[in-house]
Specification:
Beta-Lactamase; Alpha-Beta Plaits; TIM Barrel; 3 domains; 8-stranded mixed barrel; 25 helices; elongated; disordered C terminus
Length: about 725
């Protein structure tokens, strides 16, 4: 009996051991199942992360190709829609300019490496590649899709952009090619279809650029690859005909696999710490997703940035402004918007070239960054337009302080290499009280205020006011009525007498435009002339006045005719041709005609002014410098351009009544002109004493209300026939 208990304990111990083994097996099975479940889940997450990253790479690569094409389109637009190009590309002697500004720009250029100018019959006028004249025929060098792009640009409907871009196969490889009509910046071109010329730019996509694109857009191993139908990591490049040109491929970064291999050892080594394992898994997965989000955010920021200035572009600005307005509405803060347009930038760009203009834009952007606060939204929203938006408790005070700082910044000249550029800015200010005005409307208001600042003197800031909308509407209606009046020849021309200083006899007239608006009455010239200049109507208006005056001049064979020329007309490369056409149609002797122009344009554009004067003088007309003494009054420009006559501004004449220094100044001015052998006309003469004083100082011609106000042709005719002067 004593031995029985031990015999009984053995099966119990065995049972316990068996139970332990079963429990251990069960636990092991659970651990294995949990491990399998976890590893399977991790594997699926890794696979999903891999596919998500590949999709991101695919979309980013496609976007990079789109950006590559859009950059060429923007460059093409800058060089094709250019007033200088519209002049020199069509000029018989413009070959040197075309080669300098197009052909030679292809050397070591990140913008384009092939430049061609072609006529409407697809004949090559100029072709350069990598800074040297091209030795190939474009029909052999490019595939047939080039001509599809050419036809698309050539047949663009009125009002649409005469440009086309796309990828094209060349003998060198694959390139993005753009074709655009060479025209003025405004889009106007007075050439028939068969005389038009087109600018062709090509920018080759080479392996180095593809690799750099991969670094910029975080696409690992981006390169040209074969068209492997089984590879999902590819983006195809096709031409406008849908033909496959090349394929870009990349290496999958496999961020999911990276996370999987980081976590798996922990799973095998720390099965007892399942909770910690899940925590580590969550952290690893979160890091992977964060990296993906960071990559996407970087690509998004790149798409919203201006590549020249480094600031937000227009799309990025509108997105940021909408967020700012929403935040202002939530926090009950005012949203302040300053809209800047550079004054004089076009002149600097035209005078020194696009490269200097680009450096100037970078300098302005850097200066504005230093002036605004870190929480402000700063963007370049156009070629020479910038915008600043921020939240403020006191928007009025903030606007005044910031605009004063910005205007002060532009008081200093910009040093660009060896050149010094002086520009200003006009600022429009609009406020969204507590975010109550949407972003798009806020921009419209600030833009309107900016144009008001320009119209009222430039170099200043102006606030949006509700009455500006009504004024803009009135101006738009006035512009429409003026356009109709010019088309229907409803304007008329009046003539102001010009007399000989000795005997006050009538020797000539100055033609002036007048407009009586239907339903409103007479519109002052100082109102409708600026509108005509800003809208491009001045060309038609000026030629109308010249044509009407020349027609009338035939009745006064003994008189001379003076006609004012606007800077807008003078900038037209074909202006001299139009003037010559008027002379032929009216059978006018050009030697009887004097074209009067102000000195501002000569100072801003001396080279182009000299060329235009040369072409006009070849017709036989005389050139007079108008309003001398009211502007820069540079002696150097008097010598440089050799004007046929100088007209003293009426401000100098009116000052004669004050005596003293005013008389001395007038005498010095006339003496200066006589030393340069330039005859002098004094305008604005209103009294007999002024007329006598002007004659004594050496003026040979006089003009003003004392001799007659601007009058109808019939009144001039009576004065001319009667051989008498009008003493008013």
């Amino acid at each position: 009996m004593r031995l029985s208990p031990p015999r009984m304990r053995h099966p119990v111990a065995a049972g316990r051991r068996l139970t332990g083994l079963l429990m251990l097996a069960a636990f092991a099975l659970v651990v294995v199942l949990v491990t399998i479940f976890i590893l399977t889940a991790i594997n699926r997450i890794a696979d999903y992360a891999n596919r998500l990253d590949d999709d991101r790479s695919r979309q980013t690569t496609a976007g990079a190709l789109g950006t590559f094409e859009s950059q060429l389109r923007a460059t093409l637009n800058d060089y094709a829609a250019w007033d200088d190009a519209a002049q020199f590309v069509y000029a018989p002697d413009g070959e040197a300019w075309v080669k300098s500004n197009y052909g030679e720009m292809t050397v070591n250029s990140d913008l384009f490496d092939v430049a061609m100018v072609m006529d409407a019959r697809r004949q090559v006028v100029m072709s350069y590649q990598d800074g040297q004249p091209a030795g190939w025929d474009p029909h052999d060098y490019f595939d047939a899709s080039l001509w599809t792009l050419f036809d698309k640009a050539a047949s663009a409907a009125a009002g649409s952009s005469p440009e086309a871009t796309g990828f094209v196969r060349t003998t060198k490889g694959v390139a993005v090619v753009g074709v655009a009509l060479v025209r003025q910046k405004s889009g106007d071109l007075d050439k028939p279809n068969d005389e038009r010329r087109f600018l062709v730019f090509a920018r080759h996509l080479v392996a180095a650029q593809v690799a750099k694109m991969g670094q910029t857009y975080v696409v690992e191993g981006l390169q040209f690859t074969s068209n492997d139908a089984g590879s999902p990591n590819k983006v195809e490049i096709r031409n406008v005909h849908g033909k496959l040109l090349a394929t870009l491929g990349w290496r999958s970064r496999l961020p999911g696999n990276l996370g999987y291999h980081q976590v798996k050892p922990l799973v095998y080594c720390a099965l007892a710490m399942v909770g910690l394992f899940f925590l580590l898994l969550l952290v690893s997965g979160s890091n992977t997703l964060n990296r993906l989000k960071d990559d996407e955010a970087a690509a998004r920021r790149l798409a919203m940035s201006d590549r020249l200035s480094g600031l937000l572009n227009r799309a990025g600005f509108f997105a940021a402004l909408d967020e700012l307005v929403a935040e202002g509405r939530q926090r009950e803060l005012h949203v302040l918007l300053l809209y800047l347009d550079l004054d004089g930038f076009k002149e600097v760009n035209d005078a020194y070239g696009h490269a200097t203009g680009d450096q100037l834009i970078r300098g302005v952007a850097a200066g504005l960054k230093a002036l605004v606060t870190a929480d402000s939204v700063l963007a370049r929203v156009g070629g020479d337009e910038f915008a600043v938006a921020l939240l403020s408790f006191d928007a009025q005070q903030t606007a005044e302080t910031l605009s004063d700082r910005i205007l002060g910044f532009f008081d200093e000249p910009f040093v660009i290499g060896e050149r010094v550029a002086t520009i200003g800015t006009s600022i429009g200010i609009a406020i969204s009280p507590r975010g109550s005005v949407a972003g798009e409307e806020l921009v419209r208001r600030a833009d309107m205020a900016m144009y008001r600042a320009k119209e009222t003197g430039r170099g200043r800031a102006d606030y949006y006011r509700p009455e500006m909308d009504a004024e803009r509407e009135d101006r738009n209606r006035l512009e429409i009525d003026l356009r109709i009046a010019i088309e229907r020849r409803e304007l008329h021309v009046v003539y102001q007498p010009v007399v000989d200083a000795e005997g006050w006899g009538l020797i000539g007239v100055e033609a002036l435009a007048r407009w009586t608006r239907k339903g409103y009455g007479p519109v002052p010239p100082e109102v409708f002339i600026p509108i005509a200049e800003s809208t491009g109507l001045i060309d038609q208006l000026g030629l109308f006045v010249l044509h009407r005056a020349c027609d009338t001049l035939r009745h006064w064979p003994g008189l001379k005719l003076a006609v004012n020329v606007s800077p807008g007309q003078f900038r037209d490369p074909a202006f001299a041709t139009h003037v010559g056409s008027v002379f032929r149609k009216t059978d006018t002797d050009p030697s009887r005609i004097t074209l009067e122009m102000t000195e501002g344009y000569f100072i801003q554009n001396p080279d182009r002014a000299r060329m235009a004067i040369t072409m006009l003088r070849q017709l036989g007309v005389k050139i007079a410098l108008d309003d001398f003494g009211a502007g820069f009054s540079s002696v150097g420009y008097l010598r440089q351009f050799g004007f046929d006559r100088m007209k003293i501004d009426k401000s100098l004449v009116n000052a004669l009544d004050e005596g003293g220094r005013a008389v001395d100044l007038l005498q010095a001015t006339v003496a200066l002109a006589r030393s340069l052998c330039i005859p002098v006309t004094a305008e604005g003469v209103e009294s007999q004493d002024q007329a006598i004083q002007l004659r004594l100082t050496g003026c040979d011609e006089l003009q003003g209300y004392f001799f007659g106000k601007p009058m109808l042709a019939e009144e001039i005719d009576a004065m001319y026939r009667g051989g008498r002067r009008n003493s008013n």
